[in-house]
Specification:
It is built from one helix and 42 strands. It is mainly beta and 630 residues long. The two termini are 132 Å apart.
């Protein structure tokens, strides 16, 4: 497109915008300024006047085409006191310069600052629109001056879209920005969803998680935000930061009586009941109950009831009573224990809270309380007993002893001498003479051949008690009246008891078996066994051994004895037929072949091989060649 064509296009747009400006000016009042007819320089748009009826800002006239660049249009001056006027229209660019941008609508009440001066050839920056002043009405803010055109290029037209009407179609909550490419709507503010182009919708924060408020508080939605209600009574904190239960019990026991328990509950507290022994309530106060004022507090009437804090005590039962003042006082039957302390010879009579003791019986002096003392009758005239007898004092009485030996009668009636010799020779040995004496008797001497006395008895002298009466020590000496006899020599000895006994050699012939050594004894012998054999004749094989016999019975000839563990053989030439297990040997195995081979049979007790069936099925066999011990 040529420069001439571009200039014509801009003139056409200028005329159209001029008509629009004139239309807007007719709504807000007449213009108070005239467009500047610049020759080669773009005019400066002037703001509305300061009158209360200030008109619309004037339009700058486009500069004529020249060979040099037009001067830059200065920014429009902000309107002053206009009340509620609409924004001024954009000034048209002077010919040869770029298009100046339209001024934005000023907010009510503040004064817009003047736009800065556009530099030559560039677009002048629009001044902000002045706010409506006090006292004016209907006046519009002055429009921004348009920068002059350069000398060689045709000026471009002003923005075709303005944010001054209905915020450019953007939501009222967002910022509208006008540019050459159209209107740009800002983002919705915090607390709103949607976009500035479509619409901004308030977000109900309370619809999710109670808006973040404490669950105990109410969330109230507000435009673009929300509020949290205060925490309920009994809680500290805020709805926004969180509500914390107040532990009322932590201070002054929650106001409860000090005797009761304060229990904290969510948002409140409760007081426990007054303890036993108190009336009232925990909230109003617990008052001690005087239990003693009624029925002596339940104490036994014999005791004293003492009121205490929250309780009472019963005094001790009086003397002569058991139990407690609380459980009841029961009269003590002192007579039931140790006769009440009375002398055992007297009668104890129980009385309420006490007792009395009866008098002492005959033969005693004193009293039941102080004690009964026995009277000693023997202290006077031997108690009336015979002088030959003893008087013995007894409890409450006395006894006379028996008459001494040699006397008859009693100590109480009198003692008479007995003639002992008249009966059974007085107890003297029949061989001696008895002589009676007062209260006794004497016996004569024993005859020859006897020892002892006639009183104790004449005893034959036992010659056998000394050196066996001269008999052989191995024989028995038998005493006879005035003599003795010697018995026969014991078994195993030859000779007589009187002449002497000679030992018979019991080891001839030798009775010991299996190589044992015989030691002769008195009518006996002792075998010293070898090879582990035991028994009186060394016939018992050692533990862990087996004896092998030649024939089919236990009395047959011994062939061999094996001791220990392992395999033993050969048993004997031609084999064997009987086995005897030694002590501690639980079993052995016998074999038909040498070296524990061939048929076998386990022996667990003494066994006759002649009737044994071997494991290899060969039938009965009495030809054992070897044996094994575990």
């Amino acid at each position: 497109m040529s420069i001439t064509q571009e200039v014509r296009l801009r003139l056409t747009r200028f005329l159209s915008l001029s008509c629009l400006a004139a239309l807007l000016a007719s709504c807000g009042g007449s213009s108070d300024n005239n467009p500047t007819d610049a020759g080669g320089t773009g005019g400066t748009g002037t703001g509305g006047s300061m009158s209360s009826g200030g008109g619309h800002g004037g339009n700058a006239t486009a500069g004529t085409t020249g060979s040099t660049a037009g001067t830059t249009g200065s920014g429009g001056i902000a309107g002053t006191t206009g009340n509620g006027g609409s924004g001024g229209t954009s000034g048209l660019a002077g010919m040869g310069g770029t298009t100046g941008a339209a001024g934005t609508t000023g907010a009510a009440g503040t004064t817009g600052a003047a736009g800065t001066t556009g530099a030559a050839g560039t677009t002048g920056v629009a001044g902000t629109t002045g706010a409506a002043g006090n006292g004016g009405h209907g006046g519009a803010a002055g429009a921004t001056g348009v920068a002059g055109l350069t000398g060689t290029d045709a000026g471009t037209d002003a923005s075709t879209v303005s944010c001054a009407v209905s915020n450019g179609g953007c939501d009222p909550l967002v910022t509208c920005t006008a540019g050459s490419s159209g209107v740009v709507c800002g983002a919705c503010p915090s607390g709103y969803s949607g976009t500035g182009t479509t619409a901004c919708t308030d977000i109900n924060e309370c619809a999710t998680n109670n808006g973040g408020c404490d669950p105990l508080t109410a969330c109230t939605n507000t435009p673009g935000s929300y509020t949290c209600a205060a925490c309920p009574a009994g809680y500290t904190g805020t709805g926004a930061t969180g509500c914390t239960d107040i532990n009322e019990c932590a201070t002054n026991n929650g106001g409860c009586d000090p005797l009761v328990a304060c229990t904290n509950t969510p948002g409140s507290f409760s007081c426990g009941g007054c303890p036993a022994g108190y009336s009232g309530t925990s909230a109003t106060g617990c008052t001690d109950i005087n239990e003693c004022a009624t029925g002596n507090g339940g104490c036994d009437p014999l005791t004293t009831c003492t009121n205490t804090t929250g309780s009472f005590t019963c005094g001790l039962c009086p003397a002569g009573y058991s139990g407690t003042g609380l459980m009841g006082c029961v009269d003590i039957n002192e007579c039931a224990t140790d006769n009440g302390g009375c002398d055992p010879l007297t009668t104890c009579t129980n009385m309420p809270g006490g007792f009395i003791c009866g008098g002492c019986p005959m033969g005693y002096m004193g009293g039941g309380s102080s004690g009964c003392m026995d009277i000693n009758e023997c202290a006077t005239s031997n108690g009336g007993c015979d002088p030959l007898t003893a008087c013995t004092n007894t409890a409450g009485s006395f006894t006379c002893g028996a008459c001494p030996a040699g006397y008859t009668g009693t100590g109480s009636t009198g003692c008479v001498d007995i003639d002992e010799c008249a009966t059974n020779n007085g107890g003297c040995d029949p061989l001696a003479t008895c002589t009676n004496t007062p209260g006794s008797f004497t016996c004569g001497a024993c005859p020859a051949g006897y020892t002892g006395s006639a009183a104790t008895g004449c005893v034959d002298i036992d010659e056998c008690s000394t050196n066996n009466g001269g008999c052989d020590p191995l024989t028995t000496c038998t005493n006879t009246a005035g003599s003795f006899t010697c018995g026969a020599c014991p078994a195993g000895y030859s000779g007589t008891g009187a002449t002497g006994c000679t030992n018979i050699n019991d080891c001839a012939p030798n009775p010991c078996q299996n190589g044992g050594t015989c030691t002769d004894g008195i009518n006996s012998y002792t075998c010293s066994c070898v090879g582990g054999y035991t028994g009186s004749t060394c016939a018992t094989p050692p533990a862990g051994s087996v004896q092998i016999l030649v024939d089919c019975d236990s009395n047959s000839r011994l062939l061999n004895t094996f001791t220990g563990s392992g395999c033993f053989g050969p048993v004997a030439a031609g084999g064997a037929s009987y086995a005897i297990l030694g002590a501690g040997t639980s079993q052995v195995t016998v074999w038909s072949g040498a070296n524990c081979t061939g048929c076998s049979y386990v022996v667990t007790s003494n066994l006759n091989f002649c009737s044994a069936s071997f494991s290899c099925g060969s039938g009965l066999n009495d030809n054992v060649q070897s044996v094994s011990i575990p």
